Amino acid sequence: MIHSMTGFGLGEAEVNGASSTVELRSVNNRFCEVSVRLPRSLSEYESEVQARIKKNFARGRITARIQVETGEDPMASLWINPDGVRRCMELLNELRETAGLTEPVRLKHLLEYSDVFQTTEGLPEETAQGWNASKQALDKAIANLQAMRRLEGDALLKDMEQRLQAIDLLLEQVETHAPKRVESARERLRQRVAEMLEDNRIDPHRLELEIAILAERLDITEECVRLKSHLNLFRKCLASEHAEGRKLNFIAQEIHREVNTLGSKSGDTEIAYLAVAMKDELEKIREQVQNVE
What we know:
- By secondary structure, this protein is α+β, with helices and mostly antiparallel strands.
- Among the domains are: about 75-120, no CATH class; about 155-290, no CATH class.
- The chain is built from eight helices and six strands, in the order βββαββααβααααα.
- It has helices at about 45-55, 80-100, 105-110, 125-200, 205-220, 220-240, 245-265, 270-290; strands spanning about 5-15, 20-25, 30-35, 60-70, 80, 115-120.
- Strands 1-2-4-3 form a four-stranded mixed beta sheet. Strands 5-6 form a two-stranded antiparallel ribbon.
- Helix 4 (about 125-200) packs antiparallel against helix 5, helix 4 runs antiparallel to helix 8 and helix 6 runs antiparallel to helix 7 (about 245-265).
- The protein is elongated, with a radius of gyration of 35 Å.
- The N and C termini lie close together (about 10 Å).
């Protein structure tokens, strides 16, 4: 089972008249990075929100947006701040005198300052209710994001399994063709030796060297065995219950290395063509692996 790193999760909850909506958006990233947008009244809980999210996801850049409403008329909790008004008046008058202005301070000037009003928003009781609602909404959003990432992961898994099967079939063709290629090369070597014997130009050491070079160049058994081993390991990681994105990426690199060696070592047009077809399937797998958690 694998999970994608892309997805969206929405959660909503209400506690004692305080309602919260949480949106989580996730995109690809090598690590787990979380950014949070909170109401000012809940700013102290930013680190806890990040911890809750990181506990559930191993990779991905996740953006969390939390909104809270108390259900009350926002204007009903708004009051004049007498101390703030007096302080603003003092500052404005001081500024007017310093600038040498004769125009008096007017109400519209005071309204430019937020300190002239105070609000009950952020009181301990309201903050607690908003945070409790937000925690429930966050848990729902996390569950929904996980579900979407699993769904996306199922699609990735199906695609990669099909491409692995295609590589298996191509490898079978390589193994079927390889013995024919070896026999053809041996026949060419026999003809070369026969020509050397006719001209009395044969050198025993040269003959042994030619045979050794031929054996080394044509034997791709080791590459085929390692390639099968890497493919099996890749499948085991796909079936793992843990996040295996980094490991899958590493194994894909090893598979690519073996396919490259197989194609270049064979010295055969047919096998080189099959190796190119395998690399084409593998490249699409590597693209999909970049989306895996």
